[in-house]
Design goal:
Number of strands: 30
Oligomer: single chain
Distance between the termini: 17 Å
Number of helices: 23
Strand order of the largest sheet: 5-4-18-17-16-6-7
Bound molecules: iron/sulfur cluster
Shape: globular
Largest sheet: 7 strands, mixed
Length: about 725
Amino acid sequence: MALIPQSISELIERHGPHLHDVPPGGWASRGDPDRLVKTHCCFCGVQCGIQLKVKDNQVTGFEPWEDFPVNRGMLCPKGVKRYLQASHPDRLLSPLVRTSDGFREASWTDAIDQVVRNIQKIQEKHGKNAFAVLSGASLTNEKAYLMGKFARVALGTRHIDYNGRLCMVAAGTASRMAFGIDRAANPWSDIPLAKCLILAGTNVGECFPILTDYIWKARDNGARIIVIDPRMTPIARTADLFIPIRPGRDSALMNGLLHVCLERGWVDTRFIEQHTRGLETVQRAVASYTPARVAEICGIPARAVIQAAEWWATTETGMLLHARGIEHHSKGTENCLSCINLVLATGKIGKPGCGYSTITGQGNGQGGREHGQRCNQLPGARDIENPADRQIVAARWKVSESELPRSGMASTEMMEAIHRGEIRGLLSICFNPLVSLPDAEHTRSALDKLEFFGVIDFFLSETARHADVVLAGSLHEEDEGTVTSAEGRVVRIQRAVEPPGKARSDWEIICELARRFAPFDQFPYACVEDIFRELCHVSSGAVCDYSGMTYHKIESNYGLFWPCPSLNHPGTPRLYEGGQFYHPDGRARFNAVEYRPPVEDTDAEFPVILTTGRVVSQFLSGTQTRRIGPLVQQYPEPLLELHPGLAKERGIIDGDQVLVWSRRGTVTLRCQVVKTIRPDTVFIPYHWADEKSANRLTNNTLDPLSKIPEFKVCAVQIARA
Ligand code: SF4
């Protein structure tokens, strides 16, 4: 199968001019750097430390940052190659406005005027809420905070939400319900202390490669590793127990594990009595989830259920980690709650080597959901419908409580609202919904219906091509601020270079827009640190309290874990120590979960399950990584993975082009026949657009609690093309 091109020129021929970013003389030809800048990777939630080499206001390479304790100099392929995006010819260097002949370059005055005029026109004609804002979880905490304030105070719209809605909101919702707080329970340094690890729905070896090192350290220390996944991912190949679950059945399995623990007395009665509420209802709910029934639902052996329960419950320490495989479901919150029930019943939380965590996919997946860019939330992760929270934030923002908009629509609901004519205009920053939302054709037709669409971005993403105005913003290394990693560590992002050409820092663009709608003293920032100081002040007293942090303190401690409520507070790496949870009575909550099948299960017409995910060399909607030559070379196109049994049944051989269709659309992809997937399931990575987009097939059914879509399971049919 000749899928990997043999040379850069072949790659360019196959994939177009975006690979011309190889500098004359090759990748390592740019000479000694002027300086090294200690910062962090722009991709996943592990937030590895990295030193960027800078020469002549260009990022020319990297050096390991071995002192930074999370990754100690190690980086995955994406981190190693990230520096190549900055010099890509697609980098937007100036604002663009749409004309009848396509985009033309515009001055900042023209472009900003057009955005302002169109927002005003739509809001005057249709009301404040007819204009919506889409934000991103790759933004720094400062920008996330600014976007929320811009939407609510400057524009007065209730509709602002972010692309973290497609990532880990189900876990956040479940954590708040169970623990009263939405943050990982432990620092990563607890992983090697665990004697049992359950890794559920997380292809950690490809999506968070550096985290895999912590898991291997645990294994070296004697830990048993249980992996639950429909695919035998790289981490599953070294597991002690691999449970190849049928997609969409996770809560049944977790209920089954808890059933076995309760039946055999493998629970921590003292912990349950002293630190939790609600076990009785959960006990009743899981009574019918016998290993035999769970085996039938999940398509796995019953003995695997018993074995996993025994190892988890009878081992002194244990951590349960999950990612999108658990969360991307129309019952994503219930799936997470069923995991938490197991953790609570066995008392494996709040101690070294014991805990529960989601591994956030986006760089600031954690911070992105704390500072007020979510549709139902104010800064400090405060509840926008809670009168006391509203009063506090309104007072600190110097507006009246009644002026603060109420809860708005989730980003996953906005496309429907555009189709209904309720939302007429949109401003989006670093969000590529055309690739990342389910049912891509539905998204495309929604974007085309908008009366005005403005975008702030650094590349012309597939979504930005539909914009009326594109404001050329900043890459990660062109801006500064803070990011909160998946373990809850707030780290410092340093500006390495100035934005090129006429591009500007995102925060300056947002401030300029905000000041056209609100008095200057509501957006008075002279620098990014001013925004951080305000963010910390507004978060003071909230669960998510940053008020004891400063840039200097963050830098000198290699990051700080929130809550950090005063300047002499050291931060809180491990939550729930001493069994103290964040509900008013200090107790965690069990939540009963009844298994529900996927909204779209297989039938005679669509007999195959489709699940989607990531590959190691690409990141989310691919806006950046599809422009980094060596990463494209590593995995040039989306491949459909299918089992040899299914391939044989359909007369398909490895490397064939295969037609895949669902109730929403069709794609044709080259296939890879692998024994590492269930015979009833196929897999497509979702980083590509248009005819290669996995999301032409996926289902936009939402989890009613978190509004996350059901990316991980829908029904399809396949045939040799
Ligand atoms: Fe970047 Fe994540 Fe890879 Fe670390 S593991 S280098 S943060 S993509």
